[in-house]
Amino acid sequence: MHYYKTTIQYEGTHYAGFQWQKGIQTIQSEFNIAIAKIINGKFTTMAASRTDTGVHAVEQIVKISSENSIDLTCFLQALNRALPLDIRCLGIESCEGLFKPSALADSKEYRYFFTNKTQVPKVDRYFVANISNPLNFEALMICTKALVGCHDFCNFFSKGSNVSSTIRHIYICELEVINPHDILIASGLFKIPQNLQKCYQLRIVGNGFLKQMIRHIVSALWMVGSGKISIEEFLSLLDGAKNDKQKWKVASPDGLFLFKINYPN
Q1: Contact, 27 vs 16, CB < 8 A?
Q2: N or C: which end of the chain has fewer CB within 10 A?
Q3: What is the reported pTM?
Q4: Do residues 227 and 26 make contact, with C-beta atoms less than 8 angstroms apart?
Q5: Is 106 an annotated catalytic residue?
Q6: Could you tell me what percentage of the chain is helix, strand and coil, using 3-state DSSP and rounding each to the nearest 5?
Q7: For residues 258 and 265, what is the distance between their CA atoms, to the nearest angstrom?
């Protein structure tokens, strides 16, 4: 077998997440269809992160295992011609057979972009979510800082995936005002309106994330910011016993980006 590490980027709006699902359009299914047009023989693909429906990726790592070798000099250009316009392959290189994109990652970085306006046009919400309730950002900052460290996120994920533990380590959790054009300047996929020059960014770096965990965190922060739950209640849900009644709906996937997968040097 021959093994390759690829870096891909995609707009997740029209896809049911990364992972292949029978009869459903996903990033992996489109990626595999494109590869099959270029190379002969059997192959498999494996990603670093199973992004959910509607979630975007600035940098996703995908390993290709192929029974035949790939000519790297022409593969990248041919693959991008075969892929839909909302999925791009940024690079490809040979790798070891033992390389596992998710298991060997040191950390994963996600970013969630949102505005806090009474109303925004639909076109402004494709890559930047909006919460219309006025937010107390001092309260948000207290909760954001509390997320850093090792915690049990049993109250901050959706059921539907088998996990042995709900404990995760968050290395960085920052909330700041940014210009989204500055963050996504290198990409041609994410067309943010020129008049949208300012939004909030929640940047989270951790050793791993549960299903829809970041979107749960965002919703919980919005609940605190809008006064629907207290800071104390948020903190009690973090590391506390499992609460059977969910206090919020998960935030929209529109503003969520898998930003970077970090590996040991």
Answers
A1: no
A2: C
A3: 0.94
A4: no
A5: no
A6: 25, 30, 50
A7: 20
